[in-house]
Amino acid sequence: MPEWNRKLSQELLQEVKSLQPSPEMKLQDYRILLIGPVGAGKSSFCNTVNSVFRGRMTQRAICGEGPHSITTAYQPYILNSKDNVPLHVRLCDTRGLEPNFGIDTMEFSYLLNGHIPERYEFNAEKSISLDDPMFVLKPSLKDRPHCVVLLDATTIGKLDEKLLEKIKNFRKSATRKQIPQAVLLTKIDIQDKAVGQHLEKVYTSTVIEKKVQEISNMIGFPKNHV
């Protein structure tokens, strides 16, 4: 079990900075698609990660709370270092998932295949179609996400059944396309106050361990992918 400290955090930062697609892929960066319920913290995560690499507080993505998603578009964000040098990682923010609105299984499949362009405004009541002028008919590899992260807030046990089924279907779709996936558990400081006060306790917290097991059981992810 790793021990969270400054040395480990610097090693992880350096590992991300050194990431680079192989030349034969002809890619500038990896696209990490962020998918999750409304309020799970996708946009906040984009801001936090960017702030860490810039070495100061930044706000690229608009955040907020409400009954519906604040983010309405497919918005990729390029990460930059302190020297303003672009990293080879792009975080792709999306509209928050809702039981009866927003991104459905077909639209998610289009997203994985690269048919949905950057800054496309999702219609909460109608999915993009083949005859939509913004639909990318012949996407290239650079248009497609290379990893899917399903962000889960601490309300995982209270998820609407329809929403949970939607998330499971999204996972199946990504698996069929052989796209790597992981679950990022957000708001762990709220779930366990001790972790909120001392982040280094995250790996030894029984509260967080139980939450990881719960997510693994509900969605089918191995625990080491949470």
From TrEMBL:
Record-linked InterPro entries: P-loop_NTPase
Segment forming the signal sequence: none
PANTHER family referenced in this protein's UniProt entry, alphabetically: INTERFERON-INDUCED PROTEIN 44, VWFA DOMAIN-CONTAINING PROTEIN-RELATED
Protein name: Interferon-induced protein 44-like
